[in-house]
Specification:
Length: 133
């Protein structure tokens, strides 16, 4: 991934790149998300691990990252005789898109503020240098 914003703007990006850009998700995280999107029904961690050909513990860590970002949801399924297990499904794409838009708006506002601070700081420095000359 390019380091500077100008490098990022020059690079071709696909929509899945947003997952990495906004949330720092790894390729495995994206693979797990794609497995859940492709599934007809919610999946267990074991089923996700099998779908991405990884160990259960590795898939579980990816699932936890996806839960933290809000890209997937967890549901508890209870056994009749007691006990339970969890299944996972993708979050509605509209909600994910809305969350990314909100995050982008927050980032944009923060960058605007920093640019204003930069301008104020260096306008003051230039004005002070002019007065002292």
């Amino acid at each position: 991934m390019p380091d500077s914003m100008s490098e990022q703007l020059q690079q071709d990006m696909e929509c899945e790149g947003l997952l990495e850009c906004f949330h720092g998700l790894k390729q495995l995280d994206k693979d797990c998300f794609q497995a859940l999107v492709a599934a007809d029904d919610p999946l267990t961690v074991d089923e996700i691990a099998e779908g991405v050909d990884r160990e259960r513990s590795t898939a579980y860590r990816a699932v936890q990252r996806l839960l933290q970002t809000g890209f997937i949801q967890k549901e508890q399924v209870n056994y009749e005789q007691g006990g339970y297990y969890h299944v996972y499904s993708p979050t509605d794409p509209q909600k994910i898109a809305d969350d990314m838009q909100r995050m982008l708006n927050d980032w944009y506002a923060k960058m605007g503020q920093l640019i204003q601070e930069f301008e104020s700081k260096y306008d003051e420095t230039e004005a002070t240098a002019s007065i002292q000359s």
